[in-house]
Here is the input.
Amino acid sequence: MNIGKLESQLNDFDPRLRRQALENLLAYSAEHPGILVPEGASVNMHCHSFFSFSAYGFSPSGLVWLAKKKGFRAAGIVDFDVLDGVEEFLDACDLAEVRGSAAMETRIYVPEFSTRVTNSPGEPGINYHTGIGFTSQKVDGKVVKIMDNMRRQAIQRNHSIIEKLNAYLDPVAIDYELDVLPLTPAGSATERHMLVAYTTAAERTVSNLAEFWADKLALDLSKVTALLTNPAEFLMAVRVKLMKRGGIAYIQPSPENFPTAEEFYEMVSSCGALPIVNYLDGTNPGEQCLQELLALLTPKGAAALNMIPNLAIPDPQKDPDNTELRHQRRELLYRNVRLAQEFDLPLHIGTEMNSYGQRQLDDLTSPDLAPVRQTFVDGAFFIYGHTRLQKVLGLGYQSEWARNALPTRKMRNAFYTQAGYRIPPGIAGINLMRQIDPTMEPKEILALLNH
Here is the structure.
């Protein structure tokens, strides 16, 4: 069996080909278990798929196979502004016997922080947020209108960016429908897709790439020549110079471009999922007031805190000499983990993988992360427990049953975390949960799951 070919097919835009490739790989691994790494200590609940942008090109099925092959203890998909990969990912998790969850990330406007930058650098009032624990991509009612509006606004921003960059990068130009959308499986393009389209267009248009980009990026020719030997660093440099704050095509966000916390929380909760706050690194003015932010958002419905360890703490593999900065950022992360615990907010962590060079998995046994490993793993099992009970029985965190039987965040956190540890992945977990009577008390359900 050609493993490499099947792994490539896992990320094909044809969903039937992806499913068949996954089935073939799982059948092969059942006969040859040595190709799988035993389950380890680490989790990655924040993996972007190609339905928004994956730097590795992973589909939801490809991410499930990665988790199975590399021994992730649990894995989660997170896509920007879309839910297109939810059902594929969760179904693939069942097939592969991988613990999984599905989420959507977006930006919201928080008027109370309108003068302070939180986790969106250079953009006061704008806050990255995530909804975790979705079990379906199907939405209805008011949610449809909100999702459609988010997609429409994204397309408008993309066209504005292309108009500016086509003028600036002349003779290099791209067409949104012809050059960008074919890079996506479902028409949800991001800045990163446009970045790939522009760099590809430059390769086919100009005769001297180094001279072209040195001129357009206002960088020394020698620096650009060196960057071109490192695709990850080169793409980052182009994005910073052209699309990020201060760049030619940067669009300053305004409040009317984003949903409010109340709108986003209503949308997420109505889908049975959990709205959560994102944490960057604790250094921006708004994140230095994280306690104030959490005190504002938890009464509105924030149910957890998302962290990206490889962004919160500088990666020692990339910058081994910067020990002082790593120490400062590590202490900030520890302090804010404790703060989340004070607010009864589980932790949701991962590496993103939507930027070139990011890790596929954080090492939770590393000296930096070992002290918070159990908290991070508990958070993964918490959202896995919710996801399983919601998907199979409709008894998730936001259900009427949970509101009545588990009225506080602390009670729900404990219940769904314990349930997550007790529910096996795959069909075995489904069969076990089908023995649950929805009239049972939480302790009765946990006792049943313990068998």
Observations:
- The mean pLDDT is 94.
- Residues 1-35 form one domain.
- The longest helix spans residues 142-168.
